[in-house]
Every structure is written in C-alpha cells, then in structure tokens.
Amino acid sequence: MKSINNAYAGLSGNYLFSEVARRVSAFKARRPETEVISLGIGDVSQPLAPAVISALHKAVDEMARPETFRGYGPEQGYAFLREAILRHDFLPRGVNVSAEEIFISDGAKSDIGNFQELFGEDAVVALTDPVYPVYEDSNAMSGRAGTFRNGRWSRLVYLPCTRANGFQPELPETRPDVIYLCSPNNPTGTVLDRESLTSWVNYARQQECLILFDAAYESFLRDDSLPHSIYEIPGADEVAVEFRSLSKTAGFTGLRCGYAVVPEKISARTADGRTLKLHDMWLRRQCTKYNGCPYIVQRAAEAVFLPETRQQLDAALSVYRKNADLMLDAFRRMGLSAFGGVHSPYVWLQTPENMPSWSFFDLMLEKAAVVCTPGVGFGASGEGYARFTAFNSPENTVKALERLEKAL
Ligand code: MLT
Predict the structure, then answer these.
(1) Which of 20, 45, 132, 347 to mutate to test the pocket of ligand 1 (most atoms within 8 A of CB)?
(2) Per the confidence metrics, is the pTM higher than 0.85?
(3) Contact 243, 111 (CB under 8 A)
(4) What number does the ligand 1 atom closest to the CA of 245 have?
(5) For residue range 310-332, what is the model confidence (pLDDT) as tens digits?
C-alpha cells in the first residue's frame, strides 16, 4: 500500500514507555540474574480493593444467566456509573455537570489520544514542556504538529515548565485553539492552584480557546483546598473538557476504565460558520467508533464510588504517598534537587551535574538495576531530569532507594 498517513513517517522514534521497556528488556537479557526494580512507568502495584473484586464477581455471575446477561451497552456508559461518578466526584465539590455530560471509556489515555480528532487540521495546539507524550504524539499522528526538529514540533506551541518558573506553565504569547493542561502534573508532579487555574480559564474564555484538562492524578491531592476538577473554577464548563482515570485512583491500569466530561455548553464553529456542540461531536464519534467499556468493568468501577470503598482505596493511596515521601527524603539526603511528589505519585529529579536524561537512565539501570523515566522523553525542557514513580511496593521502593544511594 502506497497511500498512508504520512504523519506516522514523521514521528520520532518509539512511544516513550515502549522505548524504556525495550532498553529494560535488553538489560534483562544481558543480566538475567539481576532483579530489576521499576520506578519507571506509572503502573500500580497494590491489588484491587475487595469491594471492586466482589462487584466483578457479581457482574461475571450476571453474565452467566439469560435474565441478567448484557450484550452491547450504551456507548457513552451505563447510567448507574455516570450517576455514581456525578454523586461522588462532582456534586460534593459544588460542580454542576450532568450525568449526560460524562462519557465512560477504557481509560484517559484513549480519550485524550482520540479527542484531538474533533479539531481541524489547522488547529493550533499548545502544550506544556515537559508533557505526557500522548498529547503531543496524537496530534503529530493527525498531521497537526508540523515537522519534528531538535526535540520540538514546528507547529505546536510549547509552554516550558522549568525550575525557573516553578514548573508552572505561563499563558501563551500567541493564541492557540487548544491548550492541554495536567494537574497534578505528569511528569513534574506539580499542581495548578485555584488562582493559576482561574487565570487559565479566564484566558480560554477571553481568547475562545478550548482547555483539555487531564485530572488523572487528582486523588493524590493532599490539600483539599486545591481544585480537583477544573469545573470548580467559574466559567470552566464553557471552555474545558476534563479527563479522569480509575487507573491510579483505584488500581485499574489492567482493568481499564476512565471518563471524559464534555459539557453541553462548549460549542465549536465550522469553516462555513455553523455552530456545533463539542458534546454532540464526541457522542457521534464514540457511537461510531467505540462500543463501550465492558459491563463487568463498569460494575467494578461503580464500586469505586461507593462510600464504603473509600477506606479500601485510601489504603493503597497511602502506600503510594508514603513511597513518594521516602523518595523525596532520600533524594534530598543525597544532595539532589527533587520536585513534585507531594500531591502526586511522581517525583521529578534534577540529574546530578546536569547529566543528560538518557545517560542518567542508562547509568541507573547499569549500576542500580533501577528503572526511571528519562525527563527528556517528556519534552526538550525535561532534559537533565528523570521521573520516578511512587507506584511500586514499599519494599521495592526502599530497596531501589538504597541501591540508588549506593550508585550515586
Ligand atoms: C505514565 O507513566 O506516565 C503513565 O502510566 C502512562 C499512562 O498512564 O499511560
């Protein structure tokens, strides 16, 4: 076949976490006797909560009887789950979205990767640097990013998040159509507080931009006054789509469930001047290309939002929080500069003596058999940094930190 999407040919190398996995596999093949500890990809280690397991069993049994068997479900998710999310995640925080604005999916990664399909090829996209690579790569795959040179795409607007600005993105100098924001941030672990999020919402309203707000890590916020949802900011429902995930909140990285909130109020204009609702476009897209998250997974997800499950989920979250505290303490003891990790499972480490990220990654793998994620993999401004996740078990985290301390 000769006619392909040429944008794929312009992509640079592998997807970040596939490249990390490739290097780790090569290392394991060379040193099969060495136990490798991963503080790399943000994959959870604590098992699913007992309430989630019971809900799964119950739903599986329902599938075994003709009177309770379920086939195709609604593409946007079952009402029982959308309403549970509304009651748990939004109403208590004074957020007035409706269940019809919530779309259940197999995870935030797919939603975030797919959502850009709704934008024109000429839409100007702004993203932070460093950034979760899915935002950048999915726009590049659609031919919206231009050409890749010296670590940056020519048509994307980058908002550098560096030590000098406290890893806080500043408002763009030129108006983009779409802005990706993530708080608590992957990879820097820093947070947008109410004031800064308000300035983004106000900017988007004034400039008629759309914000794609990734809140996958909101359950790691330790200070309840920080916004968990962008809709806590007045007017955000006119300009922002929010993505949430059960992966890190409830250990669903393998089970897969997330959701997007697409408010009815957000409209977009077509080239010939007509107005379309983004909500209706997303519904059309999902109905055409997606058959919904499996019924048994949605029942398991429903259990996540029951008040009695909270304690079980908190047990896993507190393991990760303690791991993050241990990492911050250990890195500071080693005389290194480490950021994030307080409201986030990610610690953003400045490499010693400004060592390039991939050299640091290789060194840690060789000398300590510990996997991190090289900061430059998240963007040019991540050079000289590495990301460590708090998602491994406490035992492995302690062991990895001891090895790192020795190696450094
Ligand atoms: C990460 O490590 O950044 C995440 O686990 C990747 C993801 O959620 O897809």
Answers:
(1) 132
(2) yes
(3) yes
(4) 8
(5) 999 999 999 999 999 999 999 99
